[in-house]
Every structure is written in C-alpha cells, then in structure tokens.
Design brief:
This protein is an alpha+beta fold. It folds into three domains: 58 residues, Uridine Diphospho-n-acetylenolpyruvylglucosamine Reductase, domain 2, CATH 3.30.43; 111 residues, Uridine Diphospho-n-acetylenolpyruvylglucosamine Reductase, domain 3; 65 residues, Uridine Diphospho-n-acetylenolpyruvylglucosamine Reductase, domain 1, CATH 3.90.78. The chain has six helices and 20 strands. It is globular and about 55 Å long. Bound molecules: flavin-adenine dinucleotide.
Length: 266
C-alpha cells in the first residue's frame, strides 16, 4: 500500500496536528486493521500521538448517476458533489454548500444543516462487510453507527437543484467565524444550543494560548494562530466542567479527538 506524509497542521481545518505517515488506499484496497480513517479532517482534532492513519485515494472520488440514484465515492469532496448536482440539475445536496468534507466524513457524522442531513436520502453504504441498506444502520443527530470504513454510498436524488435553498442555508452561516476551526466543538443538547451554554458560563471569546471559543459563535473553537492540541483540550474540558456544574448537563463533543492517549476530556 502507498503512504503519504501529511502535515496535519496544514491539512486539517483547525490547523493542528503532527506530521504523520498516512496509508493511502487505491481501488480495491481496504483500510488496514487498527487504522483510523481520515477524510477531509474538517471535524478532527488530531493529537501528537495519533493511531496509525489511513485515507482513501483519488480512486474513491467520483459521482455517478444510475437512474434516480447517485452513487458517490467516499473520498469525494462536498464541493464536487455540489457541482455535480448543479450540472445535472439534481436536488437533495444543496445543504453541502459551505459544509467542508468528503462523502465518507458526511456519512460517518450524518452531517447536515437544520433538517437537511446526509442520511435523509441515503439508500445504502458500501463497507468492509459489503453493501448495507440504510434500514440496517442506526443513526441520529451527528451520529451514525457504521461497522467501519465506507467506500461509497448511494442516494435517492430528485430532479431540480434548488438554488434558493442553497442560498438560504448559506445565509445561516453569516455569523460563522472565519478563523480555522473544526466546526461546532460540541453537539447541541436536546432542546438547547451548546453555544448558548458556553456563553452562559462566560467562555464566549475566552482564549488559552492560540485557541479560543469564538467571539462570533461560542461553540466554534478557533485557532487564532499557533494553537495547540493541549490548549484545545483544556478549553473543551473547561467548558464541559462549567456547563456540567451550572446546568447539570454533560456536553458531548462533536469534534472527533484522535490521539492514542484516551479520554483526554475526562
Ligand atoms: C467551517 C466549518 C463548518 C462546518 N459546518 C458543519 C455543518 O454545518 N454541519 C455539519 O454537520 N458539520 C459541519 N462541519 C463539520 C464537518 O464539515 C463535517 O463533520 C464533515 O462531514 C466532515 O467530513 P470530513 O471528510 O472532513 O471528515 P473527517 O473530519 O476527516 O472525519 C470525521 C469522522 O468521519 C470518519 N470518516 C471519514 N471518512 C470516512 C469513511 N470513508 N468511512 C467511515 N468513516 C469515515 C472519520 O474516521 C471521523 O470519525 C463544519 C466544519 C467546519 C470546519
């Protein structure tokens, strides 16, 4: 199998991480045992001691129409999915405009915006265990219970790309910070917003070294320059402790922490 040297301080959206050798899969290859599969690293906080890492190579980046089904390779970036849908006048993926990632990361996170989520139109996923129909998977808000790597997925699409919907969903991002981040640090608890809770415990805009909870949106942990894994973890721990104490509620990280030293938030 091929490997590639990746500087995660450049590759990841939060601009934190080590330089690491990553196994890059080609057509027909499968993720080796014990490896963590990285997509676009838009939802990851990679520590100084990551487990062995793998990525899907360009053979897994494609969109193909089969009747009313759109088959997408798991390494396909969201930008490519969006332009394919615009070009072929297909509806269902308008929400991926400005949602950075690859199809694999979208499925694993059930990524979405408001009611528009990846699983809404999912039909099946191709995995190490073969093709699995959506009905056999358990999933929910920013969660999918997958048996491991996804190599491709099929979606039901409808005719007509809805430009107005894409615009409206983009407009919701008006107050999204521009500084590097991994999106929302914590999942919204039922009936509430993680950002509101973080602000209520006085951490909106609060920083440690190069990292801070954004002034614009408290649930975005931003890297203002030279931020480290340790600073990010310390801030997330602080937010969890304060929110737990004041609201008796444990915030669940949305960001995936990738480091051999387990449970850094406990
Ligand atoms: C500015 C910004 C805005 C964002 N806005 C949103 C938003 O509105 N809504 C939202 O839901 N998210 C949002 N995110 C988070 C991120 O865009 C999504 O979680 C996206 O789906 C991550 O995709 P990725 O390819 O980068 O996955 P990664 O971050 O690389 O990985 C995320 C998880 O997916 C797993 N994974 C990756 N590929 C595969 C595969 N092929 N098979 C199985 N598992 C896989 C990884 O192992 C990991 O557990 C935002 C992030 C940023 C930086």
């Amino acid at each position: 199998m091929k490997t590639r040297t990746v500087d995660f301080a450049r590759y990841s959206s939060i601009r934190i991480g080590p330089v690491a050798e990553v196994t890059v899969l080609e057509r027909g290859e499968r993720v080796p045992e014990g490896h963590f599969l990285v997509g676009g690293a838009n939802n990851l906080l990679i520590g100084p001691h990551p487990p062995p890492l793998a990525m899907l190579g360009k053979d897994f980046s494609y969109c193909r129409l089969e009747g009313e089904r759109l088959i997408i390779g798991a390494a396909t970036p969201t930008g490519r999915i969006l332009s394919f849908c615009k070009k072929h006048d297909l509806g269902g993926f308008e929400f991926v405009a400005k949602l950075p990632g690859t199809l694999g990361g979208m499925v694993a996170m059930n990524a979405g915006v408001k009611a528009h989520e990846t699983f809404n139109r999912l039909l099946w996923v191709e995995t190490d265990a073969g093709r699995i129909e959506k009905g056999a998977l358990s999933y929910g808000y920013r969660y999918a219970d997958l048996p491991g790597a996804v190599y491709a997925a099929a979606f039901e699409v409808k005719k007509g790309f809805d430009g107005a919907l894409a615009e409206a969903l983009n407009a919701l991002r008006a107050n999204q910070p521009k500084a590097p981040s991994a999106g929302s640090a914590f999942k919204n608890p039922p009936g509430d917003y993680a950002g509101r809770l973080i602000e209520a415990v006085g951490l909106k805009g609060y920083g440690l070294g190069g990292m801070a909870f954004s002034e614009r949106h408290a649930n975005f942990l931003v890297n203002l320059g030279g931020g480290t894994f340790e600073e990010a973890i310390a801030l997330m721990r602080m937010a969890r402790e304060r929110v737990a104490k004041r609201f008796d509620l444990l915030l669940e990280p949305e960001i995936r922490i990738v480091n051999e030293i387990k449970a850094p938030l406990k």
